[in-house]
Design brief:
This protein has strands at about 5-10, 15, 20-30, 40-50, 50-55, 60-70, 70-75, 80-85, 90-95, 100-105, 110-115, 120-130, 130-135, 145-150, 150-155, 160-165, 170, 180-185, 190-195. The protein is mostly beta strands. The strands form four sheets. The protein has a six-stranded antiparallel sheet, with no helix packed on it. A five-stranded antiparallel sheet has the order 1-17-14-19-12, with no helix packed on it.
Amino acid sequence: MANAELIRLALCPSMAWRNGGGSMRLVATHPLDGGADDFDWRISVAEVAKDSPFSAFPGYDRCIALISGNGMTLESGDLDLNHRLDNPMQPFYFAGETRIHARLIDGPMQNLSVLARRGSHWITLTPLASPTRLQLAARKAPLFIQCLSGELQIDLHDHESIHLLSGELVLWRSDSPDMHLISHSDKTKALMVDLGTQST
């Protein structure tokens, strides 16, 4: 499993938002010593507890997807953006500098959040619902897979396998191998994030 980082969400550090609207579990960032506002990309899971504004990240592109709860509506001050995030695992892309206020639909919720520096990386978030059998070619760009429920089997080209259960994640910061993603359970749900670069 060369270059693969196996991560348990429950062990990721949790940080409360400054506005008290929720908290965030930081899953991965690049570079590793990147600050809160100075990184190439960042992956986290946000736990939204009440209506609150989003933090602005000028110069970054963002993508979020609902992973638990009933979701939220996202509105910008000029009303150019009005989006209902209530379809689980479906990506919503927007510019990091957009001023957004989130309103919970019915109770707390969680979402996967991906930030990428504009011009350095682009984000593709793909939901994986069972049954799944997907072949992926080796790539240089970062690749991230999170299992939300059930079990996901990842067969690598060197005859090794990774088995992800709910709440487990795997990350290749670069040089991910050829692989097959396999699930035979109708309970398996997962998300895959491809952080491509201009050269990939």
